[in-house]
Known about the structure:
11 helices, mainly alpha, 302 residues
Amino acid sequence: MSKRSLEKLFVLLDMYGMMCELQMEIDTIFVGESCSQMHDSALSLRKCLARTAQKTFSDFEEAVENDVAKFIITDGTVHPLTIYVMNYVKFLFDYQSTLKQLFVEFKRDDGTGSELACVTMSIMQALQNNLDSRAKQYQDPALMHIFLMNNIHHIVNSVDRSEAKDLLGDDWIQTHRRIVLQNANQYKRVAWAKVLQCLSGQGWSLSGRQISTDVKERFRSFNVLFDENYQKQRGWSVPDSELRESLRLAVAEVMLPAYRSFHKRFGPLIQNHKAHGKYVKHTPEQLELFLGNLFEGKQERA
């Protein structure tokens, strides 16, 4: 009788489950023509609860996909919608037996539990569609990939630690782990490509006045781009500690060897310059410390 809402689903499932449990007693107590109205009312109530619960699933899927982006997560961390949806899905699996009865009510279940898997996958897809839409709001493509990486990683970990893993299967988990890795690699490429270009000495001669000028310009450009990246990205957030460390390591594995090589090869060419410290601002060791501070950001909203 009341307006449908997403929060009422689990109350509806509780009520439906209780009506199913009472069905045998209802059939025993309300027998004969004189009790037919009461018996039919009880059956009608059970079916009404089942229909409303089923419609609420559709409402939830639609609400998730069409949830309007009221704010942007400026540090790229896990969105509250992702946390909410994954908690919702986790609670669904506390009602597996009730849901199986509900699906049988509408003759939609084949006895394997696949209907719950279908519902879960639909909700997951709706969430991913929403996240893809939110990601497009980021002007910085590197931060966009951090956002997608964080949220898909949270989804995969939530599934992997719940009963949803058995229904969705290892293939689903592995496919989405690859999406996490793809976004991590895309972040690394987009965020650090220009910085790494400054450390290329290809085609240079190691003699002459021009090389000294070129080296100074390369170090100057590197300092500007690296400092800009560092100041920005230390405010970005990767809340999962293992993911954060693996991403730091991935950046360090491409950045540190390139900088060490450039520093060792070309640093001595301007070592005697009176403004040497202006150009060679960081030692490789200092650079390593800086990279170890990335992704500790605050969860800010704008």
